[in-house]
Amino acid sequence: MKLKSKITAICFGIVSFASTAQTKTELKLWYDKPATIWNEALPLGNGRLGAMVFGDPAVERLQLNEETIWAGSPNSNAHTKSIEALPKVRQLVFEGKFDEAQALATQDIMSQTNDGMPYQTFGSAYISFPGHQKYTNYYRDLDIENATAKVKYTVNGVEFTREILTSFSDQVIVVKLSASQPGQITANVFMNSPIDKTVPSTEGNQIILSGVGTNFENVKGKVKFQGRIEAKNKGGEVSASNGILIINKADEVTLYISIATNFKNYQDITEDEVAKSKSYLEKALPKSFDAIKKAHVAYYQKFFNRVALDLGSNDAIKKPTNERIRDFKNQFDPQLASLYFQFGRYLLISSSQPGGQPANLQGIWNDMVTPPWDSKYTTNINAEMNYWPAEVTNLSEMHEPFIQMAKELSVTGAVTAKTMYNANGWVLHHNTDIWRVTAPVDSAASGMWPTGGAWVSQDLWERYLYTGDINYLKEIYPIIKGSADFFLDFMITDPNTGYLVVVPSSSPENTHAGGTGKSTIASGTTMDNQLVFDLFSNVIKASKLVAPDENYTKKLSDALAKMPPMKIGKHSQLQEWQDDWDNPKDNHRHVSHLYGLFPSNQISPIKTPELFEGAKQSLIYRTDESTGWSMGWKVNLWARLLDGNHAYKLIQDQLHLVTADQKKGGGTYPNMLDAHQPFQIDGNFGCTAGIAEMLMQSQEDAIHLLPALPTVWKDGSIKGLVTRGGFVIDMTWKNNKVSTLKVYSKLGGNCRLKLENTLKADKGIVLKKAKGKNPNPLFYDVEVKKPIISKEAKLPKVKLPKYNEYDVEMKAGQTYSFSAN
């Protein structure tokens, strides 16, 4: 049935009147009007199921997702045509014929079949309430302290309340409808989907919507899905007919919504979606809303409550969230920054649960059949950015779906590496999907980038540094080694420079000045060199710990010795390419060559001051305002540059309210989701990680406390941040200096603390001035090659505060307390 006609038949017009205000300081997004567009609706999720709550009194819309509803079916987009083309493309690059090289790569190396499948919406559930077009005292919220949404309003003196949650523990969406007087709940409930050939039906007291993911780019859609809704009522009557639940004069109603698919894994879609959808519902129905909510909140808070951030509060909290976002740049609202930080953690818990799929480009929230960029996994920044907060903000379990995807990509990527490049190991280009395709997609301008496996491997290694889990390292070692194996085979010597390089490749999505200035394809880009440097270095370290092989690690060391150093160009910038092509007026959203500053640790104010200043100059040239995710990355970069005020300015730019009439420019939508535009979730995760980096860093040989604290956050506290080495930090500060500090050690070992003021330890704790190299093996200095610096470059000297460094030998499972001197 057509969506528009059914809504017209059941729904009514809408008029809004007076509102109430939320004045408490809880972690809530709240509003005094219903959502009229998707970017105003509020996201709920349990990792597998997602719901966007609109909160319209007359017609509630719950836009629904299930994480495995994708177009297509298991497939590979690898091909052999590339083997003959590869040496020709390389030769054209070496000859400076970049346009020709890029055209040939697009024609013969890019996927010859499909560019990956889109993530797709299930559809929506609608709840229509006759006579609720005119209402007063309207209020809706998303409570991220307990992962629930609420809608309240008054019609004819009766207060109506809706409570909605996506249950972690029971794997259903539950909606409680109640009223301040008995017999007032009268409504119709139905489901619809923009996916063709979905079939609504009725089975007893349940309404059902069944369908199949679409065909896409000649891949047949085979993901079968089914959604079911049943109502439990107190008082009144409930019946089901023609795919509609009819509720008449009930005192209270609870709706139970289940969705399931036939997806088992990326190779297998033989699950019984009908049996699964029935099972989820049958197990949940005997439970009351309150019982489901209690278990749901307990599960959620087990993760969410690990971290607390207090930056202070003021009267700004009395305004609805959209107004606070609108005013953030011009009104000091520290609690909104805390809320935004925690909202990122909420989103990660809600979109990435152990045993499920990783958060995609939109997390799990998508209302389209073909969303922007297909809502896939873009691995030249966006997929990795989604997991930047996972370890540092104490959500390590949420990292597991990404790690599982890496394992699967190492399997499909091995086929692609051998088929397309006759190389060992495994390869990943700039995009993948639920079927784990790994061939290059789209055009060569964005797709000819074979370095995704190196970035994924860096993420896996970072998790080891936080957890120190040697069994985990044994588990991921074959994956990161497999990526290294690919580059040992794929990299060749550039005849123009004599360096060992990745070619053909690009600095993601950015054109350079070579040739006609219209191509991205290049040889030995800075980002590729940084990624492979990390990969080879990390595999060498890992090999020594879990699989000693001197011959193999020597191959990696020899390859590292042949790779290019980083370069400082004539504009005093860190060069993005091997040639000094950078344009100071280039404000491209990608800042790929700054990977070495963040998330890597190759660029340091102490160890590599020239590169530090060059990276800063590059970031200044790029400017601040950009797409949402780009600003999220820049918060982290300015934090690593130890400039808290500039990082805060980027948060102000990011918390720029994007409304329906703003067609360009990034920022934040009224529902606090990141605006690229359009919606991408990575900017939320990037900013959450960036705020953590402003408060604490551990990428070098010490735990740096308040490394980039903006002056406006004069007093505050943070509890629960995790450092590399497995230390958990609880800290308060006053007048921009550390006041009290508690460190819980998960693993034991030396804890090196770095801060501007001096510390004293509680009785019984031995606090020593730090000397020499940190003996804790989970902290390490990176030794990069000395940069090549243009004679025209003018680099200022790095100016740093005076820091104090302390060592404390800690035992696993114990907490150590300190205070300012």
Account of the protein in words:
Residues 29-266 form the Glycosyl hydrolase family 95 N-terminal domain. Residues 288-695 form the Glycosyl hydrolase family 95 catalytic domain. Residues 697-763 form the Alpha fucosidase A-like C-terminal domain. This is Alpha-L-fucosidase 2. One of its GO terms (molecular function) is alpha-L-fucosidase activity. The chain is α+β, with helices and mostly antiparallel strands and 821 residues long. It has a domain at 31-72 and 117-305: Beta-galactosidase, Chain A, domain 5 (Distorted Sandwich). Helix content is 30%, strand content 23%. The strands form nine sheets. Strands 1-6-7-8-9-16-13-12-11 form a nine-stranded antiparallel β-sheet. Strands 2-3-4-5-10-15-14 form a seven-stranded antiparallel β-sheet. Strand 7 (148-155) and strand 8 (158-166) form a beta hairpin. Helix 10 packs antiparallel against helix 12 (452-467), helix 12 (452-467) crosses helix 14 (526-546) and helix 14 runs antiparallel to helix 15. Residues 1-24 have low confidence and may be disordered.
